[in-house]
Design goal:
alpha/beta; 8 strands; binds phosphoenolpyruvate
């Protein structure tokens, strides 16, 4: 059975209440309900109640960009997975490169977040990706394996039954230097192969998104590759017409 595609917006720390209302209005008016493609918006925490209000009767899902690895307690400033559930989130991005490299999240911490989201019945979007110097040094596969294995060891292969992976080369995020479809496909196929060592069925079923300067004019070519099941979209998801074009590029 062909895998359903997923196009996920990562708005990062952008927008304000008025702007978000306008953008959601434009996106939800333009999205054509389509069983072959799921559309998701990962908004800043404080706007999640508003996302729920605006999107509850639309085919668009909403989710968070991060979560605490802890269930509850004395963790000032953190947000728990049960809080995200209260506002109807179904997806949570974990291990985005900005969390890993700007905020110093370790592979272990990302794996713990993956586990917490999974156990709560939400879908983690586990981001994996190498730095420019790692690609240039020929260690891309080593880095991807290390990041993936940490989640596998912590949560087990069965947790990948309800998970999404996003391959996001760090050198491509927000830089305009998109990976070529060949470069992206090579890593996606590698990730699927690593999972197949544990379960062929899960490896075959899991969605692997590409992220890193996906734009309206390069999405279709990336999404046409066998192992690329959609995208995680940063900058281009803040412009409704561009995001809608990207959503339509999965077909
Ligand atoms: C991202 O934030 O996950 C991302 C891929 O950003 P951009 O599309 O702007 O490169």
């Amino acid at each position: 059975m062909p895998r359903q595609s997923l196009v996920a917006a990562n708005w990062k720390m952008n927008g304000d209440l008025a702007g978000i209302r306008e953008l959601v209005g434009e996106i939800s008016t333009g999205v054509e309900p389509d069983a072959s493609t799921e559309v998701l918006i990962c908004a800043p925490y404080v706007y999640l109640p508003e996302m729920q209000r605006l999107l509850v009767d639309t085919p668009i899902k909403w989710g968070a960009q991060n979560v605490s690895e802890f269930e509850k307690g004395a963790y000032t400033g953190e947000i728990s997975v049960s809080m995200l559930k209260d506002f109807g989130c179904e997806f949570v991005i974990v291990g985005h490169s900005e969390r890993r490299h700007v905020f110093g999240e370790s592979d272990q911490q990302v794996a713990a977040k993956f586990n917490v989201v999974n156990k709560a019945g939400l879908t983690p979007i586990l981001c994996l990706g190498e730095l420019l110097e790692e690609r240039q040094g020929g260690t891309t596969e080593e880095v991807i394996s290390r990041q993936l294995n940490e989640a596998l060891n912590c949560a087990g292969i069965e947790s990948f039954e309800n998970a999404v992976i996003a391959y996001e080369p760090v050198w491509a995020i927000g830089t305009g230097h998109t990976a070529t479809p060949e470069q992206a496909e090579e890593v996606h196929a590698f990730i699927r192969l690593q999972l197949a060592r544990h379960s062929d069925e899960i490896a075959d079923r899991i969605k692997i998104l590409y992220g890193g300067s996906v734009k309206a004019d390069n999405a279709a070519e990336l999404f046409s590759r066998a192992d690329i099941d959609g995208g995680l979209i940063g900058g281009a998801s803040l412009v409704a017409s561009d995001f809608l074009t990207i959503c339509q590029s999965t077909r």
